[in-house]
Write the structure tokens for this entry.
Amino acid sequence: QVQLVESGGGLVQPGGSLRLSCAADGFSLDNYAIGWFRQAPGKDREGVSCISTTGVSTYSADSGTGRFTVSRDNAKNTVYLQMNNVEPEDTAIYYCAADRGIWCPRSQYDYDWWGQGTQVTVSS
């Protein structure tokens, strides 16, 4: 069995912080670039961030740039998305995805594995 498992979502107040985790079950993330995506109700899924196997990170210009930080801990086979100063507009289901290769792919359809998502709700 191979899968990605997201965790860490929940209810948080505006301005608060949240750390999402993406853990691999059944395979090693060492050889995979990991992307974070989110989908709000009625909206298309959009990219948030991605981190290469070498730790080079990229951030979507319209998805939390400057407030989110992606990192990876290969020893724990886990990638994280640190969300700071969250806003109600950040409310969405957050997914992680893995693409075998060093660099982050240009298209979300190039990713090999997807997690089931974790709900993030930002509300006072």
Observations:
- The chain has a mean pLDDT of 94.
